[in-house]
Amino acid sequence: MQTTDNFDPAELAKFSDLAHRWWDTESEFRPLHQINPLRLAWIENQVPLKGLRVLDVGCGGGILADAMARTGADVLGIDLATKALKVAQLHALEAQTEGVRYQEISAEALAAAQPGTFDVVTCMEMLEHVPDPSSIVKACATLVKPGGHVFFSTINRNAKAFLFAIVGAEYVLNMLPRGTHEYAKLIKPSELAGYCRASGLTLQQTKGMQYNPLTRHYWLDADTSVNYMFATTKS
Fold first, then answer.
1. Which among 152, 183, 149 has a CA at the least distance from the CA of 166?
2. What CATH number is associated with residue 128?
3. Is the keyword Protein transport assigned to this protein (predicted)?
4. Is residue 172 pLDDT above 90, yes or no?
5. Strands 144-155 vs 118-124: parallel, antiparallel or unpaired
């Protein structure tokens, strides 16, 4: 596990330029706002968060971190995008969200400083944006307590995912800015499962996320061919 430089400056710049729009539910981040209740309910169905210490890796503007704090969890959101973190902090103040704080630090650096600290770690929609996703997975495994839960979400790498998540979402439906995702950085479930095993995480459940562009409706099911989530525990 590396402790520095596991980030792409172009990716940080991309999200920093959009930082002021994180909490605009009709902006480029509309999909994150729409899927957030689904993600939170899925996590809470496996481990009720109230009273737990939770880490959100790659928190961005704090959409998931803020929601988890509202369940009664003690949440730390971390990211390397300075502008996004400032937006997250400002929103927490304006919304008077208790139990959430933010820090500009990498997952690897925090893992070196605070191993085995958190009951739950989430890393959603982030692995496909870093040079070495296996290092992030290992850091998450290091940060969670033995018996704790780690949740991941990312995008599969196959022809269907390219058609739906990149061509469809970015170039046809304009749901996301063009260039948000790079096909080569997408991660197959088998690859993510391998990263988890190598880091001492046991896969407990997988879920796919689907979208109907006509009804603008999202739902969870067993199809992991495009967007998918992993629920794991630390041995």
1. 183
2. 3.40.50.150
3. no
4. no
5. parallel
- Above 90 in pLDDT, residue 19? no
What is the model's pTM? 0.92
On whether residue 129 sits in a domain, the answer given is yes
Total domains in the fold of the chain: 1
CB 28 within 8 Å of CB 142: no
Sheet strands (E) in the chain: 53-57, 74-79, 100-104, 118-124, 144-155, 201-212, 217-221, 227-234
Binding site for S-adenosyl-L-methionine: which residues? 39, 58, 79, 124
Tokens representing residue 202 in the block: 């046991």
- For 27-63, b/e burial (b = at least 16 CB within 10 A) is ebbebbbebbeebbebbeeeeebeebbbbbbbbbbbb
Phi, psi dihedrals of residue 183, rounded to the nearest 5°:
-55, -40
Cβ neighbors of 192 (< 8 A, separation 6 or more) are 127, 133, 137, 152, 154, 230
Is 92 within the bounds of a domain? Answer: yes
Rounded distance, CA 89 to CA 66, Å? 10
Percent of the chain past pLDDT 70, that is, above it, reads: 94
